[in-house]
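Example 5.3 — Signal recognition particle subunit SRP72
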Amino acid sequence: AAALWSEVNRCGQNGDFGRALKSVNKILQISKDDVTALQCKVVCLIQNGNFKEALGVINTHTKVLTSDIIAFEKAYCEYRLNRIENALKTIQSASQQTDKLKELYGQVLYRLERYDDCLAAYRDLIRNSQDEYEEERKTNLSAVVAAQSTWEKVMPEDLGLREATYELCYNSACALIGQGKLNEAMKKLQKAEELCRQSLSEDSDVTEEDVEAELAIIHGQMAYIMQLQGRTEDALQLYNQIIKLKPTDVGLLAVIANNIITINKDQNVFDSKKKVKLTNAEGVEHKLSKKQLQAIEFNKALLAMYTNQADQCRKLSASLQSQSPEHLLPVLIQAAQLCREKQHAKAVGLLQDFADQHPANAAEIKLTMAQLKIAQGSVTKACMILRSIEELQHKPGMVSALVTMYSHEEDIDSAIEVFTQAIQWYQQFQARTNYGCCVFQPKSPVHLSLIREAANFKLKHGRKKEAISDLEELWKQNPKDVHTLAQLISAYSLVDPEKAKVLSKHLPSSDTMSLKVDVDALENSHGATYVRKKAGKLAGDNQQKEQGQGDVKKKKKKKKGKLPKNYDPKVTPDPERWLPMRERSYYRGRKKGKKKDQVGKGTQGSTTAGSSELDASRTASSPPTSPRPGSAAAVSATSNVIPPRHQKPAGAPATKKKQQQKKKKGAKGGW
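Solution (predicted structure tokens):
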């Protein structure tokens, strides 16, 4: 047994836990309940990564291996097997809280996302520990602060940590991203990349591929900042570079794939379907926070909707709603899917049910319901839904939207009622804030803006009587406002002319009003409709006219009209010469094809009565041909008769030439 124990000791010091385990098993064959041997066996199994087997040994020998002896090993095995709740119970049940248990306790709290307790645990550890692991504890502490800033939107406190390592710089950058300070975060990440390259370059065994793999998480965060800044092309390029490296961190791959899907949206769906497989990798759920996993599931549901997988979309959104009943997104996704299926009424009913069950989120749901009603053309119903959102009724944006919609529906009374309710809300709010104060209090800029908009709206739609009270309130707030006073006088002129005269006395006189306007420049401006002529030019023109009064005006000679060539002055011109030929009284129509119809008629080989007419030599206009020497001067008509088959109609050669010319022209154009 002594030899076996010495073998176990030697193998443990050399790190050969496989051989040490064999020796321990031999010892346990001799003494199966040896506490030290069982402890050594558990440690050897943990060192070899056999956490499940190590936990089995602990649970099998609970009588021997009590919680006081083996608490850390048991909790560590449960932690590595992702049984986080069990690990927490094991740590809390330990009678003595050692430094090892406190370290593990901090890790367990971080995984459970109990960041406040985790921060307190690490502060206590840093305060009461002095060893070579101080840098790692500070890194974990900065990671907790970054998580608080990112997921809980807590303003991080300055821990006074010196950012000497790239891990600390990276965590600091994550905290800045949570605060929305993207430019500062990018600078921190660039510094983290530089420190990472420096630290890894000191190790000669580290290759460039190892450096890029270590930098993958930093580059991923850089790409995320680019995406938030709207630089989607740069972000997408960096994301794809990281995926090509094939990092072993499944959590990093899942986050990058999810971000690419959000960039693609409803475009490039085939690429998104490939990327979504990376989010389903084994162990992803243990690497990411609950909010990250939830965001991935939301995007899966949206992708199913974009790819027309209605059943899959409904299944995913229903699962998300059961996990987070108060969350808005699952219901909105279901409503969007129903709208794609043209079931708008069902979508509105679904949203109304959710608003009734969760009044805290009713405002956002009702805004969506109003949008659906507008899409259906039910503007009045949309206005009713919007007016039911009490916390938004007085907001300028809501008032503007309602007034615009009511104006579109020509419901001026309802639009004025919206203005009135909003103004009354601000009056009541001012009365509550100034309770017990008798001094005149000026109204807020938003309140005054609403009153002015209400007055302008009433004046625009001819409600001058109703606009008077608003204008008086505005003038009371600012008696020097000439524009408001002018509007008030204009309104009173129709209701009470005497009052208008009294108010007009408050208008400033024309002498006191210094209008610094250059009239000449204004009249000569580009947009002026009338431009006054310069006096000098007018005077010069008048002088020229006076000098030229005695001159005789030169008359322009009229050109004689051209007469036709065959014009005969003795013959009276045709009175219908200006009418087209077809409209003249003596037009009898054209004789179509009289000669053409006679060509080629009769039996083959015979002559027609009109064949002599086709002989060009017999026409009156053709000159007589000279007789050949030795022949008679006159030749009988029958001796020169050509059979019909060999006859060529008159003008045929000319038409052929014309056709050839056309073909040549066409060929020339083709080249």
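Remark. Residues 1-149 form a domain with the Serine Threonine Protein Phosphatase 5, Tetratricopeptide repeat fold (CATH 1.25.40.10).
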